[in-house]
Amino acid sequence: MNKYSIGIFGLFFTCIFTQTIWSQDNTLTPKEREEGWELLWDGKTTEGWRGAKISTFPTKGWEIQNGVLRVIPSGGAESANGGDIITVRKYKNFILNVDFKITKGANSGIKYFVDPELNKGEGSAIGCEFQILDDKNHPDAKLGVKGNRQLGALYDLIPPDRSDPNYRFDETGFNTATIIVNGNRVQHYLNGVKVVEYVRNTPEFNALVAYSKYTDWPNFGNQAEGNILLQDHGDEVFFKNIKIKEIKGTLLPPETGEKFKLGMAGYTFANFDLDKTLDVMQKMDMHYLCIKDFHLPLNSTDAQIKDFHAKLAEKGVTGYAVGPIYMKSEAEVDQAFAYAKRVGVRLIVGVPNIELLPYVDKKVKEYGFNFAIHLHGPDINIYQDADEVWNQTKDLDPRIGMCLDIGHDYRNGKDPIADLKKYCSRVFDIHLKNVTDSTKAGYSVEVGRGMIDIPAFINALREVGYSGMVSLEHERNMKDPFTGIGESIGYFRAMIEATK
């Protein structure tokens, strides 16, 4: 387990909120110093910065006012007045926080992996960019592809995801941009909400570059290190509280480069409270949880839901779905959909009575959520395997599909690898486990010990392009599951690496 990556994301969230409450501008608290944060700008001088195309700080275009670094407006031209500024040092793996404020119609950006030698001509220096933009009033917001030039985007490559109910932007005040680089994995956050995540040095990333304005720049975004840049785009923009924490080494989990993500099914922790659950997940470097109602009851208040998400954020965990939730009446279906909406997820893992499926179809159309029916093998008389879920749902809204529990599917005499390939268009969630037999007598064991061919399953995930969660549901020794959880995650990650 990598001692550097564990806790990075929890630390990041903690630092954002504590800085907002306790820190004076352009200073570090004792706790921040202890954690390894450094000021990139002292709020008073130009020390540590220079022009992107000159060896000194620009003599025009920038000014320092009461602890704020201001871009002086000059008509909106790109790097045509003072020009961009960059850090003197280069950085490799880091967490960067920058507070910024825009004015009406403003355009700017924060760049990283900048190579100032690439562009000696007109325009901005070349690097990956956290876009800063007034989306409402600047025409660039409507250019590009699907919003990939809007606020928070990886400029001209990846649009921002603003589906998180906690997303917010202050149009007149300061906001916090955060960029996390951990090896090839990069994330953009705006005011503590993740809006972009991608992996560099992959065919997918290189394909995006090939269809962007950066196609002619060699090795764009794939450098091992680079300078950090604040952009002069000729519009008035303000910066302060520019802080960085270098990550001294990195070892990303092998699933980072895959389309699918590795998560945890909440049922694994049926005998443990949320604090213990999150502690284990943090130690295992796991960041996605399917939320069970014993951790967050269906009748939770908005305040309880907010506190729940804050706990997850402290550990770097995201709740990606709720369930499984059993539904025996229309009222219980209503409750499940309302609960998912309040929790802020768009996937329900459910087990509705068969006669309720038309009503579920109606609610899916109303809410726009995906609904994954959890299959249970031979243990109950409905939804025993993938074939049955498909037959019950194939004529319903295409957002109704299955949570493919590969262990239960196998125990009902089916081949979960073949079923993944057959029904991939309706597989919205996967429960990862292994079992000892293809009959009801089979029981759950660690992922590397059972009868299911896990390397073949991983290759099938790649073959069908599955981009959802593969969540470990460990059901052996559930009062003391921790060794088994670690063994299962370790084996699955080893097989991801071995099959690449």
Task: Characterize this entry briefly.
The chain is an alpha/beta fold and 500 residues long. It contains 12 helices and 23 strands. It has 2 domains: 8-246, Sandwich (Jelly Rolls); 254-498, Alpha-Beta Barrel (TIM Barrel).
Written description of the protein model:
- There is one protein chain.
- The protein is of the alpha/beta class.
- The protein has two domains: 8-246, Jelly Rolls, CATH 2.60.120.560; 254-498, Divalent-metal-dependent TIM barrel enzymes (TIM Barrel), CATH 3.20.20.150.
- The protein contains twelve helices and 23 strands.
- It has helices spanning 8-22, 30-35, 203-210, 274-283, 302-314, 330-343, 357-367, 386-393, 406-411, 416-423, 454-464, 482-498, and strands at 37-39, 49-51, 62-65, 68-71, 85-87, 94-102, 107-115, 126-133, 175-182, 185-190, 193-199, 227-230, 237-246, 261-265, 288-291, 318-327, 347-352, 370-374, 400-405, 427-432, 434-435, 444-445, 469-472.
- Helix 10 (416-423) packs parallel to helix 11 (454-464).
- The radius of gyration is 24 Å and the shape is elongated.
CATH topology of the largest domain, by name, is TIM Barrel
> By CATH's scheme, which homologous superfamily of the largest domain applies?
Divalent-metal-dependent TIM barrel enzymes
Compute the number of helices: 12
CATH architecture classification of the largest domain: Alpha-Beta Barrel
Largest sheet: 8 strands, antiparallel
Structural class: alpha/beta
Instruction: Give the N-to-C terminal Cα separation.
Output: 20 Å
Number of domains: 2
Mean pLDDT: 91
